[in-house]
Amino acid sequence: MKIQVKQARELLNALITVTSGTHSVVTRSPGGQTVNQVPYELDDNARWNLTKNLGLAERIVKDADKAREGILREITGGVGRDLKRAEEPEKFQQFLERSETIEDQVESAQFLRVRLSGLKISGANPIPGVVVSALQPILLDDVVPAPEDVIPD
What is the rounded distance in angstroms from the CA atom of residue 27 to the CA atom of residue 10? Predict the structure, then answer.
């Protein structure tokens, strides 16, 4: 599958959230309150595919970050040197332009597809919509029944 580096960054963040993300559930009792972390519900196939995809997206992002660091070293003339917009506006602009080129590059990876129905997008601990949206490049289009509390068009 072909994916832009900037899309891979968004995908990586979503994969981190959905594979390790949890929802806090507060339970009140006469003795006080308890907070439990409940993981997002995923079917087994979706969890496996999302976890495998995490490593693939991470590789793309790490490679892009190394390239950006190389550009920064080249422009500043050394390792560990900061580039500040106010002090060196021309170099800063050059870095931004070259970094943007990296973010627009298209990379190839063998991402595993995930069925939308494997993500629990409704119920007690639904995956947030913004996360589902960022997972779009790897989602298979399948029909998920609408929750009963949704108002029809």
Answer: 33
Q: Is the predicted pLDDT of residue 13 greater than 70, yes or no?
A: yes
Give 147's contacts (C-beta < 8 A, 6+ positions apart): 122, 123
Residues 138, 143, 147, 152, CA torsion sign: positive
For the chain, the domains span 2-140
Continuous segment of H or E residues that includes residue 152 = none
Question: What is the three-class DSSP state of 22?
Answer: strand
Polymer length of the chain:
153
Q: Give just the sign of the alpha carbon dihedral 145, 126, 112, 106.
A: positive
| C-beta separation of 118 from 42 below 8 A | yes
pTM given for the model: 0.78
